[in-house]
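Whether sequence alone determines local backbone shape is best considered at the level of individual chains. For completeness, the protein is quoted in full, as a sequence line and a line of structure tokens:
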Amino acid sequence: MKRWFCVTIDVEPDCSVKWQRSDPLAFVNIEMGIAKILHPLFEECGVRPTYLISPEVLKHHQSVEILKALKNCELGTHLHSEYIGPELKYENPAGTQSSQFPCNLPDESEFAKIKSITELFNECFGYHPKSYRAARFGADSDTLKWLVKLDYKVDTSVTPHINWQSKGGPDFRDYPVQPYWIENGKLLEVPVTIEKKRLWLLPDKWFCYKWLRPSIMTCFEMKRLIDKFTPKNQTPVVLNMMFHSMETIPKASPYVRTKMGRKRFLKKLKNIFEYLQNLNFESKTLLEVYNGRI
């Protein structure tokens, strides 16, 4: 029986607690957070993460060299479309706040930007990325066509149950919670693992839903969510945890504000990994899920 779990991480520059990019741009969350804290924890726990890398990081040589040296992981792309243009032209994101849903761009513009980040990734690492997530989960049916055209194999932009339309984004309320094939079997969608609201009386806000996301959920809540998705029969299941690389550094995101907060965050990660492994879940990268033909 296939019981697989993915850990998918959006890799971006350091931010503020209000999601503003650092000014000047800083990459402590990669130089220290990933290299010295997060990835050693993954190695210790036998976890094979997928790092989804934004354009700003791909333009930072030291970060690329750190990511290039990592083992037992997959590297993919994460499109913050404000910060990359066609023909590999780049915008300076220092001090700005990303607010764009890439799927809202004109079709030709979205395709050009996905193509640009794909080519930039290839320049940095010498091979073609296979997994993708849109910034702010901003993907639609046209996005998926562009991904197939650019030879991607996996998208992980879908957040089941969540409606982003009030912010200008897509509506994922009726989307499946388990992976599914699209574009005639050419692309695998691996949604973020999300269940319905914690309490039905809560407002229809994204953070009121049950995510496999340690930044907003307790260990108890995540374990209950895992139990709900764990089949009692031979049905295969894939779980997909997500968070940001900046959450390893205090005040580089809204979620971890202190060293003690980081300690709690890392303790939650380790606790959940052990829980999943005790339930016979096996860690997989997104491309490994695709190749396993779930």
